[in-house]
Structure formats: C-alpha cells, structure tokens
Amino acid sequence: MSTMHDVAQRAGVSLKTVSRVVNGEPNVSEQTRRKVDAAIAELDFRPNSVARNLRTGHNDLIGLALPHLSQPYFSSLAEEIMREAERHGLRVLIELTEGNAEAELALVREHGPHLGGLLMYPVGLSDAQALTVARTVPTVFVSERSYDAPVDRVAMANREGVRALVGHMVSLGYTRIAALGADHTGRPERAAAHLRLEGYRDGLLDAGLPYVPGLVLEVGTPHWNRQEGATGMRRLIEGGVPFDAVVAFADALALGALHTLQEAGVRVPAEVAVAGFDDTDDARYAHPSLTSIAPGRAQIAREALALLSDRMNGTVERDSGRLIVADHHLNVRESTLGGMAAWGGA
After folding, report:
1. Is the dihedral of CA 286, 292, 298, 304 positive or negative?
2. CB-based contacts of 319: which residues, under 8 Å, 6+ apart?
3. Which residues contact 109 (CB under 8 A, 6 or more apart)?
4. How far is residue 116's CA from residue 129's CA, in Å, rounded to a whole number?
5. β strands within the chain, DSSP E
6. CB contact at 8 A, 261 and 272
7. Strand-pair partners of 142
8. 20 vs 18: CA distance, rounded Å
9. Beta strand pairing call for 291-294 and 273-277
10. How far apart are the first and last CA of the chain?
11. 269 preceded by cis ω (within 30°)?
C-alpha cells in the first residue's frame, strides 16, 4: 500500500504539502496541488481517514507544534514524526509557535477540540500551563525542558551526548576544549543549552581537566544557527585563549565555526578539532565532514507516538507522567581526526 511519504517523493514535495493537499487545506499553489493529485493517482494512494473517523468515532488528526523549522533538527524531526504517525494511521497538522507561550496556548485553544492528540516542543510554557495543555488534549511533550507536573515527555540525551563528545576529544589527545552555545541565564526555555553545558563540565571532570571560563562561549540568540557559530568562533579567536578543539552544542553552530576557522586559515582538524550535536545531513556532507552526536530522532518519533497512542486510547492513567530519554550515538568523522597542536594565545 502506498503511503504519504511515497506520494511526497513522487511529487517532489514535502510530507507537509501532501498532508495539506489531502486535507484540502489552503496555501497550496494550483501547480503543486496538481502534482500531488497526479502522484496520488499514479500510486493509487487512498486517504480514507474521513470514512474511518465516521465509522469508528476516532479522531486520527494530531497536532505537531514546533517553535520553528529553520533549524535542521526540527525539520528532520517533523519528517520522522510524520512517517511514524502514518504507521499509526494518524494524520499530522504542523503548527509553528516561535517558542512563544501565548502562541502555544492559543494553538491548544483553537485546535485542541479538533485534535485527537498533540505532540509539542514547548518553549514558553510554565509547569501549570503544561499541565493545562495535557489535560485539555492528549499530549506528549518532545522537549529537553523538564516539568514539575505529571506530563509525558520524550527527550534527547543532551548531557550524556556532550559528555561523550568531550570524552572523544580527550581520547584523541585534545585538552584545550572550547564549548560553543552555552547559556548561563538559567532560563527554563534554554534547557537544552543548560544540559549540554553540564555535559561539557562532566566530560572535563572525567578527564581531570579544568573548567576555563574563557573557553565557554554563549551565543547572541536562543536559536542555534550558523551565523551565531561563526560569530562565536570569531570571538574565541580574537580572545587569545589557546584552544585545540571545539564542542559546539548544535551542528549549525559547528558549521558556522568551521567557516570562521577556515577563513582564518586554521586547519581542521590538524590545528583545531570541531564536533557538533544533532547529526544533520549537513554534518555528513561538510568539508571536512563533521563529527556529531546523533540524538535518535527516529526513536524520539517512535516513542512519542507510542506514548501519545496510549493517551488517545485511554490506556494510561491521566496524571501518570512518563519520561523516555532517547539513545545517542557518536558518529566520528574527519573534523576530529588529526593533529593536536593548541591554536591561539601565547
């Protein structure tokens, strides 16, 4: 049986676009709609969700609320969730919240009554608001932020992943390891940055290396992107503190750092090793290819849909509050395999 993913590949569009066409949603050009309709006809794809809903009384439409899709992690996570949802016979409505609590709550108010369930990457919600959301519609949070409330959550191994990156650097002989993407504000919405900084500290402690504040760089916005990575690396170079390796808290930051290092004539990894977190496609095809932590996106999608199915089917207690942390994997590539001469400073 053909799937929406098959239709998307045949039409050369995203899964979200196919979903919009199938559900009759607006904001799809007539040309794109015709391409999708042609692919549906060629593959004999039969979206029969409406008939199934009428027959069983089961709402198979779920929401996926993400802060944005500009970061590769979120766009690839959305793809994984849509594939997994299709295996469960569920349709996905994607909404972007910009990480704003009011937008997150408005989504639930406006769409909650029409959804069978909700997957959300919350940024601005308080503990009480998160509980309100979970009690309004069956919800699973796909989030690094923990809540003092009985809500279901699937998370990445943020702390453990960065600890593994530092350990990898140390095993190769690097000892002046910078961290790029830290946050010292303590804001709950920056939970991933806090956890990854803790993992960095753990890795240094494991190796008996000192924590050097001059090697720890914050970025200018809450969004980890290439520009922030490039700017942060420029500050590190100009600061004159010697370093021989960089652990970036996201691949986007690492790619920006690579750009600045190459502009400065610094050889990677012969003079400075670089690693990231997320294991995006860009990491694999960078030059040099980027060592990175794969956070288990497929597992995150699989576990989140399993928890949500329980909620939607009423097979779990209302306030049970379950947590699953996905496995992580260190993918070693060219950006960390080379010389170990500290660069910069005296």
Report:
1. negative
2. 150
3. none
4. 19
5. 61-66, 91-96, 117-120, 139-142, 152-155, 177-182, 216-218, 245-248, 273-277, 291-294, 323-325, 329-331
6. yes
7. 154
8. 5
9. parallel
10. 65
11. yes
Does residue 7 sit in helix, strand or coil?
helix
Supply the DSSP symbol for 273: E
pLDDT attached to residue 315: 83
How long a stretch of residues is the chain?
A: 346
Structure tokens at 292: 């990175």
Residue in this structure with the two tokens 């980027």, named with its chain if needed:
290
Q: Three-class SS of residue 12? A: coil
Structure tokens, 248: 């970036």
What one-letter code names the amino acid at 329?
A: H
**63-89 pLDDT per residue, tens:** 999 998 888 889 899 999 999 998 888
Task: Give the pLDDT confidence score for residue 63 in this predicted structure.
Answer: 95
> At residue 78, what is the residue type?
A
pLDDT in tens, 209-237: 999 999 999 986 667 899 999 999 999 99
CB-based burial, 175-195: b 16+ in 10 Å, e otherwise: bbbbbbbbbeeeebbbbbbbb
Name residues whose C-beta falls within 8 Å of residue 150's C-beta, 6 or more positions apart in sequence. 131, 134, 319, 320, 321
Contact 248, 275 (CB under 8 A): yes
DSSP 8-class letter at 331? E
Residues 6+ apart with CB under 8 A from 98: 67, 68
Instruction: Give residue 1's pLDDT band: very low, low, confident or very high (50, 70, 90).
Output: low
Q: Are 151 and 141 in contact (CB under 8 A)?
A: yes
* Alpha-helix residue ranges (DSSP H) falling in 208-274: 226-239, 251-263
